Amino acid sequence: PTLTVLCMSMDSTVRIQRKSRQMIFFYRGYNKVGDTDNPLGTKIVQVNSTTFPALNTLGVAMGRIDFAPGGLNQPHLHPRASEMLTVIEGTLYAAFVSSNLQDGSNKVYGKILQKGDIFVFPQGLIHFQLNIGGTHAVANVAFGSQTPGLVTIANAMFESMPPIPNDVLTKAFQVDEKVIKALRSQFHTSGLGSLSCWL
What we know:
alpha+beta; Jelly Rolls; 5-stranded antiparallel beta sheet; 10 strands; Germin_Mn-BS; manganese
């Protein structure tokens, strides 16, 4: 027989003691449509061990992504988990990049997805989703970790504190300093850095 040990996170102990045992394993609000009125046109509802302490030690997490028409779940990666995305409604272009292959190339694996389609993103690889339909889109994502982690590529490059030196970015992207300054200014005024992360 299999023995499963349930262990809530330490910071949730007080809240859990006030709830009935059945409520510990219940999450409400996943069905609410997210507010996509932001520069990226997306809203992500995270269900992980931070937002749903019952997941602690269970090795799973999930999320709901709402997309406005043209909305983008910007290029990012999850260092601790692979991800499986299911389209609930709408049309998405989903892709990941396999980089630094033996021949030195970087290859994009992408697909246009319709309702009911599933796409997988391997752990640690840069990936994104773009709503290419003319209507609202919704996707569910599932992770093989209670805390998959999140690194958003653009934010990491242009909104880090302290900033990455301009000399590094101009050489890496092969552009002049004016372009780097222009990109940085977009992040400090757009609110893109206020997106919450998968812990």
